[in-house]
Design a protein that fits this description.
mainly alpha, 21 helices, single chain, 597 residues
Amino acid sequence: MRAWFAARPWKRAAGWLAVLGPLFYLTYGLANWWATTRAQVPSMAFAWERQVPFWPWTIFPYWTINVFYALSPFLARDRHTLDRHGARLLSATLIACSCFVIWPLHFSFGQPAVEGAPAFLFAALRGFDQPYNQAPSLHIALAVILWDWYRQFIRPLWARFVLHLWAFAICASVLTTWQHHFIDIPTGALLGLVCIWLWPLRRTVSMPRAWRLARDPQRWKLAACYALGALACLGLALWGGGWALWLAWPAASLSLVALNYAGFGARGFQMDGQGRMGWAARWLFAPYRLGAALNARLWTRGLPPAAEVVPGLWLGRLPTPAEWQAAGRPRLVSLCAELQVPGGTTGARCVPLLDLVVPPRSGCGARPQRSRASVAPRAARSGSAARSASRAARPRPSPGSARTAWPVPPTGWRRPRPRCAAHGRRSCCGRPGSPRSRRSAPPASPPEQRPMNDTDRATCAALAGLLRAAGVLALWGFALSAIAALVLALTLRSLPTTPSMAFGAVAILGVLERYFAFRLRLDQALFEDLARGAIASLEALDQALARLGLRASDASSAARPLADRTQGTRQLLQRHAIVVACQSAMFLLALMTQDLT
């Protein structure tokens, strides 16, 4: 027992439990109190739920989640898995309670009288719980997280069967104890899957830390398309009601895909190096993955499974197991971020890349092992991805060599060392950045300033005029934000749920709109000064921005070209217009629902 405690971070686990326990009861109680202060709290239930039996004895599996919750931190083998597990539980609590505050719901029919042993547990439950805090069910979300946590410690099949049965009993007990409606179960499961996706237990970067805002305009266009698709599915789900509410699943899936293109990148699909996706990501992206698989088959129908682009290298869609066997069991390198490598393909590797965008240089930097031949050109890989076909390359080995589909230099290939700029010899100053090169290389001189010509000044003047015209759009966005904040401040408690959520979305988007408006106002002033000649050159502008801390100070770096600056400003203007359009749509939705209510 002493060795068991010494091998596990039990003190840190006790600290996590000391934080999670009080935080749960505090936030859960505050959400219950908030619902009681509302003038009207709606309910969402199906007619068939009246036929669900009330089984008092199921309160026992309902309560067992508290025991498994309290024990779970002490089973962690290291600090990494403990922190990820604690982050999952913390995220589920905060997200669920935020939903309870933003969209409060209540249970529409009361519980009958209970006698015997279950009566004590029901009385204890009613001591801190009230018929609110419905969707998403925090009970279901925690059950999903705990099930994924405990299954890593259980190996025997009979024990795994008991674990699955226990998890099913907990999820079913929320209905048979008349604590939740059915809509709370899929939404709670979705919340649990999102928390597992956000904080994987493997030693990989977590999703919050993987966020890097995309700079490629193509990625932003695709993100906007997927976001519009998610809004369309969500609108159809809310408009249709009933079984149409299942369209919220594709809406959530497309929303996550939009986030992947906007910032998470290919890591958001959580595909490992062997082409297998995490189970939570498989369920979250299931509607999108189904559409992607059908799209790949439709685009490649009537075409051969693969085509030889260079001798020994075949490029095509992901093969079926039968196609892979018929091809002679070649080595498979998949470039798909959303489609898994078929089972049974031994030796397969995966370099996940986003579809329809130019792959980043960082995704091409890995070097395969035991490659001794020439490799495919970079354009062959990116061209397949741009055609929306499955991005898989299948090399066929030739006698005496092993070819690879990775567009990088093979192992053993060495780049020629560059000649020294000061002495003309290859190795006199060593590698760039080495101590020897720092001693021998001459000091870097600041770049020469080039004055702007008439064409450059005309471009700056035209762009400044466009930004001045866009000030009307910024004023409109600010007005929407101010009106929404004023309405929420004056009539929040008496406002129905849907208008309050819409006005809240307008106010939240207003923060992002103000940031874009500030950036555009700064760019307008800078372009006006460049057009008038108040700023002599782009180099002088970069030096001034570096002194203010708005640009990385590097004396040897060249000035950013004017074409890049104008393109960045136009992209910023487009994003600002998208945010204002979303504000206008949410504001119109709030007005329409307010009239209906």
